[in-house]
């Protein structure tokens, strides 16, 4: 006799996600459903607009990974128009993307994921001396005196005693799945607060080049910030110094705070081996050598590829343009295709998305045998795959990328676990930290390359030759392009079709669409669903184990469900209620 | 239960001196004259922490991300101490029914006394099925919480005006908050709004009550000026010196971005004076034209990188479209002199502006 448990909303994510699980009599998860419950329709809103503006619209797919959709969009438009951006522009865009990664992963670890492993209430009873000893034994991070931890603890105590617990109210404190000693809990909560302060600093790199954060600005053909080290109105020495300071601080935060905390916490949870999921991993690849074009795929730090069934001995090739490789299915979604044949997938350039809501108007639970989400089901050659940090680390490892191998072997060795142990909830969280370690150093290298290039006399940041739409093509000719990146949450690809200087079709296949995918007609589940099955629960009504695994993917649901109705073109009259 | 903010910070061991320093800082942040600091002190000494229920509707979480970037007050102070953030999808520890219960408890306990902060618009098409939580439509959930709140803050252009999902053809019939309620609504537009503006509005409610609003329900203190009017590139607009390409000589020297599609002349926001991320920079300073992101319906203004048809409220004696390329070469030599002169003019103008706005502020009073 199994029972259904519903978690809605899943909090500490981007967007609106509902998870339902069936738990058997032994409190083990037998089946799972993930449903994206919000849709906005951005792709259709793009139809008929100027392709040079697309980045701004699609950037609003997500305010957490604010920069990655803009980047994929620019690359798609530049692919369609065959624009090669200047070296400085490539370097600055990479600096912004790397900044995004480092910020996003640190914030995910401390603010969106840590509380699944860290018991805030337990921190109240910690001995600050012990916390201080632990902190000093694992890291040279400066804020580590007993007095410092005592101050934080007192602050927490007065907060708890106020009776208004705010964001910490009504959580799973005291749940038996929490395993950290109280001293480590205090350490983690302290760094939760420190990371909260720091995260507002690193984004200033976006502000310097893109004017603001969240949602920095971009431009097709390069970047809009002009470089002139002698001008007070351009990227000058002072601004470059500021960027360098922020990067150095980020390296310190990652190496002295994030990584030591990650390893310390992981060492207490090594026996939490659940959450492997599908075992198929896919990357599109990104981070060409500093200054190289995105098209220089051979120089990627994170190469593209697919691993099936956890077999690291073979890496399959991925083609974003081959219509047989990537297809999206809608059989279990509230969308339909015009030909309306079951089990038919479409490649994004021919992509089609029409609302077809067949769910109930209000519900207690969803029916797993019928459509149950706004999320499409993308497949690679028919396989459900997982994307994200773990996929990047595994594909990079399997392809023998030196830096990836080194950091992965170091982590497995330090934790004393085999490489295969990484294929789990914990491994997914660890992989995110490991790639941050690599990328924060790549951030510094990319910055150094920018400075060297400017020193060599190159101040070009923008190629205007194809900025004017009249230069693109003769009327009536169709252009198409694809832009990709490895976003923090996984492989991201934007597809654009341009006709008569306007957008004819726009489709974004985003990381969370792969991971939050519903099942397909073959019964293959998406990564969230597959990863939940088989997990034992201490108390199904306090589903801490479920949110641990779901959070390990860093869900971004507004990304996953941005699609829309093609027929509905009239301006809808807004009804004023009341 | 009636613990004031000051009693609370006292318990935390904050000294009187630090408390006063903090009050001075937030007074400045709210755009108020320093002489009003004692009023802020008095308010914080006598008022209790306000519970805030922060709901996410059709949004991208960018506003929440901006919210946690506030530097004044320090973000941890804001979230942990100044307010009681009892429900916030992106930050709260609890999930599922435990999360919903947390919001419910606040609603019951503080009837008429909590702030409802909204991020995102509410879809009305097809009965609202395009955004649901816990099997209910967002409109139903909004109704549950708006009834008993003290005031609603509509954070960001989605909640305030509908924003990107409400752009043509608005497939889900995305609707801004103020059209759905009779409660007082404070619109804080921007995609997203500046962090300090978001915190400033909360601080204002905490200290003085609801700020004075303009006709579009925006707090006047942050939205009374056009970007164009406080823009550091404004003297170049007036002098007819325009950037023609993003990395040309004019771009390097900080000339006006009007011809690159800047919407500063029709956009009301504080970007030019408050700047972004602790005053680090802002779009126009970085070389990027203003997109007009705090204006209603700005996504449908037309292509972003094309020049505005006209600049309202400006008396210039030339046609910007006819001044340009030729000037770039000829003017290059004279630019240094000219730039220096206009900086002085700008500074004089700024000084004058500051005086006016403070006087203005005092004349009008701060709030009811």
UniProtKB/TrEMBL annotation, chain A:
<feature type="binding site">
    <location>
        <position position="556"/>
    </location>
    <ligand>
        <name>Ni(2+)</name>
    </ligand>
</feature>
<feature type="binding site">
    <location>
        <position position="43"/>
    </location>
    <ligand>
        <name>Mg(2+)</name>
    </ligand>
</feature>
<dbReference type="InterPro" id="IPR018194">
    <property type="entry name" value="Ni-dep_hyd_lsu_Ni_BS"/>
</dbReference>
<keyword id="KW-0533">Nickel</keyword>
<feature type="binding site">
    <location>
        <position position="559"/>
    </location>
    <ligand>
        <name>Fe cation</name>
    </ligand>
</feature>
<dbReference type="GO" id="GO:0016151">
    <property type="term" value="F:nickel cation binding"/>
</dbReference>
<keyword id="KW-0460">Magnesium</keyword>
<comment type="subunit">
    <text>Heterodimer of a large and a small subunit.</text>
</comment>
<dbReference type="GO" id="GO:0030313">
    <property type="term" value="C:cell envelope"/>
</dbReference>
<keyword id="KW-0560">Oxidoreductase</keyword>
<comment type="similarity">
    <text>Belongs to the [NiFe]/[NiFeSe] hydrogenase large subunit family.</text>
</comment>
<keyword id="KW-0408">Iron</keyword>
<feature type="binding site">
    <location>
        <position position="65"/>
    </location>
    <ligand>
        <name>Ni(2+)</name>
    </ligand>
</feature>
<feature type="binding site">
    <location>
        <position position="62"/>
    </location>
    <ligand>
        <name>Mg(2+)</name>
    </ligand>
</feature>
<feature type="binding site">
    <location>
        <position position="562"/>
    </location>
    <ligand>
        <name>Mg(2+)</name>
    </ligand>
</feature>
<dbReference type="InterPro" id="IPR001501">
    <property type="entry name" value="Ni-dep_hyd_lsu"/>
</dbReference>
<dbReference type="Pfam" id="PF00374">
    <property type="entry name" value="NiFeSe_Hases"/>
</dbReference>
<keyword id="KW-0479">Metal-binding</keyword>
<dbReference type="InterPro" id="IPR050867">
    <property type="entry name" value="NiFe/NiFeSe_hydrgnase_LSU"/>
</dbReference>
<feature type="binding site">
    <location>
        <position position="65"/>
    </location>
    <ligand>
        <name>Fe cation</name>
    </ligand>
</feature>
<dbReference type="GO" id="GO:0008901">
    <property type="term" value="F:ferredoxin hydrogenase activity"/>
</dbReference>
<protein>
    <submittedName>
        <fullName>Hydrogenase</fullName>
    </submittedName>
</protein>
<dbReference type="InterPro" id="IPR029014">
    <property type="entry name" value="NiFe-Hase_large"/>
</dbReference>
């Amino acid at each position: 006799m199994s029972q259904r448990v519903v978690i809605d909303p899943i909090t500490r994510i981007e967007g609106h996600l509902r998870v339902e699980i069936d738990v058997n009599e032994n409190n083990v998860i037998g089946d799972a459903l993930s449903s994206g419950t919000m849709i906005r329709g951005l792709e259709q809103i793009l139809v008929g607009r100027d392709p040079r503006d697309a980045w701004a619209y699609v950037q609003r797919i997500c305010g957490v990974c604010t920069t990655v959709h803009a980047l994929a969009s620019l690359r798609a438009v530049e692919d369609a128009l065959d624009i090669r951006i200047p070296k400085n522009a490539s370097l600055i865009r990479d600096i912004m993307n790397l900044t995004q990664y480092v910020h996003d992963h640190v914030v995910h670890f401390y603010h969106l994921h840590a509380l699944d492993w860290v018991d805030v209430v337990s921190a109240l009873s910690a001995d600050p001396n012990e916390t201080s000893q632990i902190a000093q034994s694992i890291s040279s991070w400066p804020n580590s005196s007993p007095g410092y931890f005592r101050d934080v603890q007192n602050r927490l105590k007065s907060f708890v005693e106020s009776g208004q617990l705010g964001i910490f109210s009504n959580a799973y404190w005291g749940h038996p799945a929490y395993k950290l000693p109280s001293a480590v809990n205090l350490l983690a909560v302290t760094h939760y607060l420190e990371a909260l302060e720091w995260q507002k600093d690193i984004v200033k790199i976006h502000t310097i080049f893109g004017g603001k954060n969240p949602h920095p600005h971009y431009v097709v053909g390069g970047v809009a910030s002009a470089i002139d080290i002698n001008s007070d109105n351009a990227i000058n020495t002072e601004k470059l110094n500021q960027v360098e300071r922020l990067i150095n601080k980020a390296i310190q935060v990652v190496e002295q705070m994030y990584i030591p905390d990650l390893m310390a916490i992981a060492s207490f949870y090594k026996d939490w081996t659940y959450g492997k999921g599908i075992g198929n991993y896919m990357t599109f690849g990104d981070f060409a050598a500093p200054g190289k074009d995105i098209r220089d795929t051979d120089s990627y730090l994170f190469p593209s590829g697919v691993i099936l069934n956890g077999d690291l001995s073979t890496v399959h090739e991925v083609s974003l343009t081959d219509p047989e490789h990537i297809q999206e299915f809608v059989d279990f979604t509230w969308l339909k295709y015009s030909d309306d044949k079951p089990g038919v997938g479409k490649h994004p350039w021919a992509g089609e998305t029409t609302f077809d809501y067949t769910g109930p108007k209000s519900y207690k639970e969803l029916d797993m045998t019928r459509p149950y989400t706004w999320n499409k089901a993308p497949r690679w050659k028919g396989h459900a795959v997982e994307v994200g940090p773990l996929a990047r680390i595994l594909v990079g490892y399997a392809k023998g990328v030196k830096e990836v191998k080194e950091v992965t072997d170091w982590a497995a060795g330090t934790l004393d676990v085999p490489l295969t142990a990484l294929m789990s909830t914990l491994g997914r969280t660890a992989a995110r930290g490991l790639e941050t370690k690599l990328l924060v150093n790549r951030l510094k290298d990319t910055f150094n390359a920018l400075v060297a290039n400017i020193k060599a006399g190159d101040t070009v940041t923008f190629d205007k030759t194809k900025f004017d739409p009249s230069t693109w093509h003769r009327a009536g000719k169709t252009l198409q392009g694809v832009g990709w990146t490895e976003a923090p949450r996984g492989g991201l690809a934007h597809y654009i079709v341009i006709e008569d200087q306007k957008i004819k079709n726009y489709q974004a296949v985003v990381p969370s669409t792969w991971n939050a995918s519903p099942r397909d007609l073959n019964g293959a589940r998406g990564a969230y669903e597959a990863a939940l099955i088989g997990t034992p629960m201490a108390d199904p009504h306090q589903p801490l184990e479920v949110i641990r695994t779901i959070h390990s993917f860093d869900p971004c649901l507004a990304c996953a469900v941005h699609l829309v109705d093609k027929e509905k073109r009239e301006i809808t009259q807004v009804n004023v209620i009341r | 239960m009636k613990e004031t903010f000051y009693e609370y910070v006292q318990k935390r061991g904050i000294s009187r001196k630090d408390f006063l320093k903090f009050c001075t800082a937030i007074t400045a942040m709210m755009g108020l004259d320093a002489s009003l600091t004692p009023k802020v002190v008095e308010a914080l000494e006598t008022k209790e922490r306000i519970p805030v229920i922060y709901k996410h509707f059709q949004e991208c979480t960018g506003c929440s991300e901006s919210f946690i970037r506030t530097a004044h007050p320090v973000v941890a102070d804001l979230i942990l101490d100044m307010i009681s953030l009892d429900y916030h999808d992106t930050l709260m520890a609890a999930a599922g029914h435990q999360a919903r219960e947390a919001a419910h408890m606040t609603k019951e306990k503080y009837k008429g006394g909590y702030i409802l902060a909204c991020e995102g618009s509410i879809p009305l098409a097809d009965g609202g099925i395009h955004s649901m939580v816990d099997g209910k439509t967002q409109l139903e959930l909004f109704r549950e919480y708006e009834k008993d709140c003290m005031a609603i803050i509509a954070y960001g252009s989605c909640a305030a005006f509908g924003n990107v999902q409400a752009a043509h053809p608005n497939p889900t019939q995305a609707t801004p908050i103020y059209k759905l309620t009779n409660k007082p609504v404070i619109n804080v537009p921007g995609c997203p709004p500046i962090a300090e503006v978001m915190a400033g509005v909360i601080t204002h409610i905490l200290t003085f009550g609801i700020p004075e609003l303009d006709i579009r329900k925006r707090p006047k203190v942050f939205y009374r000026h056009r970007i164009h009017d406080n823009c550091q590139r404004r003297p170049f607009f007036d002098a007819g010196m325009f950037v023609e390409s993003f990395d040309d000589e004019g771009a390097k020297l900080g000339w006006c971005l009007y011809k690159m599609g800047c919407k500063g002349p029709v956009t009301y926001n504080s970007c030019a004076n408050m700047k972004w991320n602790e005053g680090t920079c802002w779009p126009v300073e970085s070389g990027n034209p203003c997109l007009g992101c705090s204006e209603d319906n700005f996504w449908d203004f037309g292509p972003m990188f094309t020049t505005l048809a006209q600049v309202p409220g400006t008396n210039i004696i030339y046609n910007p479209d006819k001044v340009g390329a030729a000037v770039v070469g000829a003017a290059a030599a004279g630019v240094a002199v000219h730039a220096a002169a206009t900086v002085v003019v700008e500074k004089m103008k700024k000084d004058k502006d500051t005086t006016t706005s403070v006087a203005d502020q005092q004349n009008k009073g701060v709030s009811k």
